Amino acid sequence: MDMIVGGPNIWLRNWWMLLLRGIAGVVFGLLTFLAPGVSLTTIVLVFGGYAFFDGILSLLTAVKGRREGDGWPWAVVLEGVAGIAIGIATLLSPTLTALALLWVVAGWALATGIVEIVLAVRLRRVLTGEWLLILSGFLSVGLGVMLVLYPATGLVTLTLWVGAYALLFGVVMLGFAFRLRARRGELEAFTGRP
């Protein structure tokens, strides 16, 4: 399972990357609520930047884990590559239609949610409070399912859904990052590695 999501040490040493992901989610979510009627181009660009940034942080976490001897967490690598690819695609083609954006966001949310749930189950063996990551995963999957089931909701509704998800996701990631930071010493003793 370590080859899929990485061992606990990857997440302990890189709790601050989860913190950055949380901050990015909160900022993106707040922006969508402060200006829900912005143009499609603006929504695409903001989402593209967010997905790209989130993908970079996921890949950095995987690379650091590999360098520190934890192996490649392939699900995290795939999550990072997907975020970067979606970010680049949306930034290069900001004239995507609302429906195309909806499918891109839905696919990204489903993939991210599944990875987070798998990671939380893996961390459950060594960490109490992994429910925050499970909640984050269910929020992601829930957004993906809602977008697939209700594709004709309109651009403003899509923006608000994505904004609400990003805000909740960001808050949950912040909570999980701080929990990892607080429990780092206890988990290092359990795993035997700094």
| Approximate shape | globular
**Averaged pLDDT:** 78
Report how far the terminal alpha carbons are from each other: 20 Å
Rg calculated over all Cα atoms: 16 Å
Low-confidence stretches: none
Beta content: under 5%
Tally of individual helices:
8
Largest sheet: none
Structural class: mainly alpha
What string, H for helix and E for strand, traces the elements in order? HHHHHHHH
Number of strands: 0
Question: Which short descriptors sum up this protein?
Answer:
single chain, 194 residues, mainly alpha
Structure summarized in a few sentences:
The chain is an all-alpha fold and 194 residues long. It has helices at 2-5, 8-13, 15-34, 40-67, 74-92, 98-123, 131-149, 155-191.
Structure, explained:
By secondary structure, this protein is an all-alpha fold. The chain has one domain. The chain has 8 helices and no strands. The protein has helices at 2-5, 8-13, 15-34, 40-67, 74-92, 98-123, 131-149, 155-191. Helix 3 runs antiparallel to helix 4 (40-67). The radius of gyration is 16 Å and the shape is globular.
Q: How is the topology of this model organized?
A:
Layout: H1 2-5, H2 8-13, H3 15-34, H4 40-67, H5 74-92, H6 98-123, H7 131-149, H8 155-191
